[in-house]
């Protein structure tokens, strides 16, 4: 379980088929990407794409589209890239955070959730990977690991306002890194690669482009649910206050990652 101290309550995150421990010491349990919603709990549907890592590597790659396979092959044979797979990310966490937050500023995205990253790291459930060229990191990925599933939580690259050749190199490095991550995760015994979400509304070109990038790797759409369950009196009292505050801040009550 990933434990996060919020403003007025302690949260515990459990992922996929994981169940919270009998004595968890938290006020609110957050079930992330649960296969079915919990009866009586507040649930938010979540659409993602999942790649099966159980087949042999050649069969997995056959599920990629032609352009994706070409970009990976070129990155492997001509770009001189190397990968870093960081199973204990504590010494590198600040490097990742600084890189991702620079990326987020360029893209007008929120910065990464530092508290969650630190808590996932302490729980032993965070994996970082990077694609490197000439000692410069081009792409970072961050995964939550639970059971036999790795879920992509963050992906960042810095290539805006750079020449077209460099942007193309970073694009190839990103695809190549996803493939290398799949191979390392498969080697570690994992069988599911969760792409971290699909946009259901593709009316915006940027969203359609992100979905198209992920679909280029094949995989299958999968619906899951994020459920929130208070387990102490503090949690039961605090949760409706928190939800009302969020609705007031953001009309429509869009879900967010932070606690």
How would you describe what is shown here?
With about 260 residues, this protein is of the alpha+beta class. It has two domains: about 1-45 and about 225-250, no CATH class; about 50-220, 3-Layer(aba) Sandwich (Aminopeptidase), CATH 3.40.630.30. It is built from seven helices and ten strands. It has helices at about 55-60, 65-80, 95-105, 115-120, 165-185, 205-215, 235-250, and strands at about 1-5, 10-15, 30-35, 40-50, 80-85, 125-135, 135-145, 150-155, 190-195, 220-230. It has a ten-stranded mixed beta sheet. β7 and β8 form a beta hairpin. α2 (about 65-80) crosses α5. The model is unreliable at about 250-259 (pLDDT under 50).
Question: What is the helix content?
Answer: 25-40%
Going by helix content, strand content and strand pairing, the class is alpha+beta
Question: Roughly what is the average pLDDT, rounded to an integer?
Answer: 92
The CATH class label of the largest domain is Alpha Beta
Oligomeric description of these chains = single chain
Structural Rg: 19 Å
The rough form would be described as globular
Number of domains: 2
Instruction: Report the portion of residues in β strands.
Output: 25-35%
Our count of helices gives: 7
Stretches where pLDDT is under 50 for at least 5 consecutive residues are 252-259
Strand segment tally: 10
**CATH homologous superfamily classification of the largest domain:** Gcn5-related N-acetyltransferase (GNAT)
Write the H/E string, N to C: EEEEHHEHHEEEHEHEH
Instruction: For the largest sheet, list the strands in their spatial order.
Output: 1-2-3-10-4-9-8-7-6-5
The major beta sheet can be summarized as: 10 strands, mixed
Q: At the third CATH level, what is the topology name of the largest domain? A: Aminopeptidase
What is the annotated CATH architecture of the largest domain?
A: 3-Layer(aba) Sandwich
N-to-C terminal Cα separation, in Å?
15 Å
